[in-house]
Amino acid sequence: MTRVLAIETSCDETSVAIVKNRQVLSNIVKSQINIHSFYGGVVPEVASRQHLETINQAIAQALIEADLDWPNIDGIAATCAPGLVGALLVGLTAAKTLAIVHNKPFVGVHHLEGHIYATYLSQPELKPPFLCLLVSGGHTSLIYVKDCGEYETLGQTRDDAAGEAFDKVARLLKLSYPGGPIIDKLAAEGNKLAFALPEGKISLPGGGYHPYDFSFSGLKTAVLRLVQKLEKEGSELLSESSVTRDIAASFQETVAKGLTKRAIACALDYGLNTIAIGGGVAANSGLRWHLSRAAESHNLQVLFPPLKLCTDNAAMIGCAAVDHLSRGHISSLNLGASSRMGIQDVMELYKFPLV
Ligand code: KG4
Ligand code: ZN
Predict the structure, then answer these.
(1) Which residue ranges form the domains of the chain, and what is each CATH number?
(2) Residue 125 Cα, ligand 2 centroid: separation in angstroms?
(3) pTM summary value
(4) Is residue 77 within 8 Å of 318, Cβ to Cβ?
(5) What is the C-alpha to C-alpha distance for residues 294 and 249, in angstroms, rounded to an integer?
């Protein structure tokens, strides 16, 4: 039995959790969305300051809710990459300090590996190999999960992340931030066939298209052109207007179908029977509908963890840390934060520097 206290501060959620193996004992998530929505997106400096203000309280609260004290904790973990460096440093420094003060091993965790581990929290019996479709505000990837620390990225976005596309299109439609949930809500009352929008495809040098890679910038530009055309024609684009609902529905349908097509093709080509979904866009009802239906018709299993585990949280970081810790993977206290680090390099986090 391994109990880890984990900290996640890679973006705009300050989160501290205590996880026992694959069981969540506490998971405190303090969202900064209200502060950032004022600016229409995450402001890195504001995020770091906000993490600093809330982290100590979140740590105390996580211990109280789990009804544990330091002697019961086996390790301290923190997200160290990828993410906003200033924001990551707050959680990383707090975790290292706690590790020194309480004489516990320190485990740095890759944020995307955390998103993969969210599925284990809701399906503790799940075993690799499986495919993870990771769709968040910062990432869109198809990851072949081979084992703890062993991952291969089979497909990824060449430009915007899926959540980023939802947020940018929401801004074009004069909706607030984050745009994903708002577009999802409006799409439910719109006509998804109202506008034909282009599915982003990545051309291959020898002809044809990349089967698993994504692109959302062309789709975003198509929505911009559509909005400009409709406004010129005198349409009123307000959040309550039916034309806004139709654009939201058509956009969501295009994204959901594109993600589903690639995820299913990838799972079938690699002989993987299970697709686990992670990241905030996993909440999207269009994606859930298309993916569930397509998976059923191909006899594949699709796993959607509960929403609070799909979006950024420290419980998923703790779950990954438990597996690493139980395999003797410990990080150096010299470990730094990195804004960009591929998931294939996860094991670099457990190499001690030569002294
Ligand atoms: O995983 P997450 O909480 O943070 C990142 O690591 O990025 O994902 C946040 C993203 C935002 O872009 C938000 O607009 C999107 O997830 N999102 C959604 C929905 N709920 C959140 N996108 C589409 N449909 C939703 N229902
Ligand atoms: Zn995330």
Answers:
(1) 3-119+310-350 (3.30.420.40), 128-307 (3.30.420.40)
(2) 23
(3) 0.94
(4) yes
(5) 19
pLDDT at 236 over 90: no
**Mean pLDDT (the chain, rounded):** 95
| Residue nearest ligand 1's atom 23 by CA | 180
Q: Beta 274-278 vs 130-135: how paired, if at all?
A: parallel
Ligand 1 pocket check: which of 9, 166, 176 to mutate, most ligand atoms within 8 Å of Cβ?
166
List the helix and strand counts (H, then E) for the chain: 11, 10
Q: Is the CB of 284 under 6 A from ligand 1?
A: yes
Answer yes or no: are the C-beta atoms of 40 and 347 closer than 8 Å: no
pLDDT tens per residue, range 276-319: 999 999 999 999 999 999 999 999 999 999 989 999 999 999 99
Looking up tokens 């026992």 gives: 20
Residue showing tokens 């052109």: 225
